[in-house]
Amino acid sequence: MKKAALLIAGLLVTILCSCGDTTGKEPLSKDLTTVADTIATVDHGTSDNQNIKKQPKGVFNGYKYETLRDGTLVIIGYEGSEKNLVIPSCINNTAVKKIEKSAFYGNTMITSVTFEKGIAVIGDEAFFGCTSLCDIIIPDSVNAVGYFAFAETPWFNAQDDEYVIVGDGVLLKYNGKAVSIVIPSIKDVHYISDSFRNCKNIICITVPDTVKIIGAYAFAGCSSMTTINLPADIMYMSGTCFDGCINLETINN
Known about the structure:
2 domains; seven-stranded mixed β-sheet; alpha/beta; globular; Leucine-rich repeat, LRR (right-handed beta-alpha superhelix); five-stranded mixed β-sheet
């Protein structure tokens, strides 16, 4: 495990150093750059980034929100009684960009959720334990989804594709049983959520060049994994993405 920790530390240093070197590389999209700037709001819900420090609260149609320093809004909770939610991307002519960590955690009344186009980030455990939540519509504006965002919901449990991809290339869940995995680049995955958590049978994973961000606990608990092949120009990796990968020996980047 110490060897794996050293490998990961070295890789993170390489990523940080390469972020300033754009020679010969295609520029990242504005949306992905925005996600990178505020990624810690998904990775454990905290950040020192000034954009995350919040201003006074408000309530709109039951949605509790706060104003970020960049002027956009984040929904932090819900005190209404509606079962079928349409979460707004604009409140009082101000854009809503994010659903905060645990915003709807354990709400057993909600049966459906539609995110209006414009929302970009769904935080950790945002809808965890919403045990009546069967229908969700996620627009292609969503480019980051935190860990356990929809865990313990009927909707999440019903997603049975081998690769469950939502929004703008967010790999939300992996249902396969393969020992060696090559994530298909044809699906244009940009962001890996906690998709492979506790996939104990996986030995080797190859991540395609399309992936720029690896979120919290992405490969956590992959205790049989010995090798992972990562793209050279990955932009961000969570410090917890390899938690519990006790046999990880090789990280190719």
